[in-house]
Amino acid sequence: MKMKEIEITGFDEEYPPVLRVLDNHTTYLIFEIFPPENGKLTDDQIDNLEDILSVVTGVEVIHEDRELFIIFSDAEKVIEKVVRFFDCFDSFSFQPISRLSQRANDYMSTLCYYTDEWTCDRDTICRYFSSQNFPLFEPFIDFQLIFSGYTLTLTRDEVKRDGRHAFDFRLFSKSKIEKGESIEYEKEGDDYWLDCGYHHAPFGFYMNQKGEIAISDSGDFQIICSFYLKFVEQYALDNQYFYEYGYYDCVETYLVEEYLFANRYTTIPECSDCYNTYYTNGNVVVKNGTLWGSSRRYLYFLINSRKRGAAEVEKMKHLITSELNYPIKSIQEIMAPIEAKRGY
Length: 344
Description:
Shape: globular
Low-confidence stretches: none
Distance between the termini: 45 Å
Radius of gyration: 22 Å
């Protein structure tokens, strides 16, 4: 078996990690000491490095042993991404934002960031907007400076490396700004809508000058979140809980709240808005949310413990169907005829 060895020199001068590229579509990333003693990796980054590298490379990565990570590719572009990630690691580090909760800041610190492709300073952004006769809306500038280039992912065991949950935050690439390319936007009433990222769902994702995030698949915009910081908070909360317990058609909002408050649930304000409300009792999170591409609402359950959490959710579903006399249907049942009609 042929092997090529690459030393990554920019991350740890004393104990540089090594890539061993094999000819069987596999690459070994080997640390002499892991966790590294240089203190560059946070505890969350240490725990989630395989998932971070999976996002960086776009291929599966597993933490096989203490010092060994296996990258399931020997492609040159994949190797370049790994080397660049570690060589430029200091540039990838997320700086805490006072407007985010500690949970969200901790979450953001585990994510990868394509700095050299998306970053630029405020003056450059403002000059770019002005050269295009585009208004200097602060939410667009703030989003570009802080979040453009991040990929929001989930690292729960059940959804690791599942691209369905990844959301690429993207506004303007560095290349687009440097070349002075035209800003493409849609105008609806007083709102300016910019493409703000990519998700596997069959919609375009947009943000307006107020920071609201919306989807569109036919020219109409459906707002799904009141502000991009809320969107990050929601991802961070979702990532904190270990298991999904399904999506269900929602009863009237006030009936849900009455039941939850009577059973000692409280709202989670940093994640909640008029489109999605989050409740928790510490063990279960209930989301009363907006269904993408539909006017319907839905209930979404996250649990910490399969045994206890699942039992609580089943009890809740039973009470809703019996006491409130409302039949619960899964979102799959609800969406099947809608998606069939759309041709998905």
